[in-house]
């Protein structure tokens, strides 16, 4: 698979990549992941880690109670995580994300390069996403 937007656009399956990108951006917009604002900022981070002792206790208790110990994943956890109001996370518009002239006029700019995305929720790839989800 391509590692970035440019590689995806050079790939023989570029039309499929474009469609997948459009669908992902649409899902993020429907989820209320960001709003458009000027500026860029980047601060708080967190990574949830289970220490060895806690993991062993969970395994012992599950054995005693005869309940299978399982691990799992929460689909879309990061993009569903709400952020604290005082935390401001802004992103530069990603390569490949386009806006109509009407959308640009609505926020009072002429080009997408005058915009940044103010995130309202977590997003994959951000240092802050693990902290927000917890």
TrEMBL record:
Task: Show the InterPro entries listed in the entry.
Answer: RVT_2
Top-level taxonomic group: Eukaryota
Pfam families the record matches: RVT_2
Sequence ranges assigned to domain Reverse transcriptase Ty1/copia-type in this UniProt record: 34-134
Entry protein name: Reverse transcriptase Ty1/copia-type domain-containing protein
Q: Which organism is it from?
A: Phytophthora sojae (strain P6497) (Soybean stem and root rot agent)
Lineage at the top is:
Eukaryota, Sar, Stramenopiles, Oomycota, Peronosporomycetes
């Amino acid at each position: 698979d391509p590692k970035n937007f440019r590689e995806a656009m050079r790939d023989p399956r570029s039309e499929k990549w474009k469609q997948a990108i459009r669908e992902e951006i649409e899902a993020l917009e429907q989820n209320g992941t960001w709003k458009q604002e000027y500026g860029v900022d980047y601060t708080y981070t967190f990574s949830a880690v289970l220490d060895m002792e806690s993991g062993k206790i969970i395994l012992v208790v599950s054995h005693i109670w005869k309940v299978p110990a399982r691990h799992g994943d929460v689909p879309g956890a990061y993009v569903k995580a709400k952020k604290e109001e005082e935390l401001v996370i802004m992103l530069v518009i990603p390569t490949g994300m386009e806006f109509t002239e009407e959308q640009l006029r609505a926020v009072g700019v002429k080009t997408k390069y005058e915009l940044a995305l103010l995130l309202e929720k977590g997003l994959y790839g951000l240092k802050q996403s693990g902290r927000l989800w917890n």
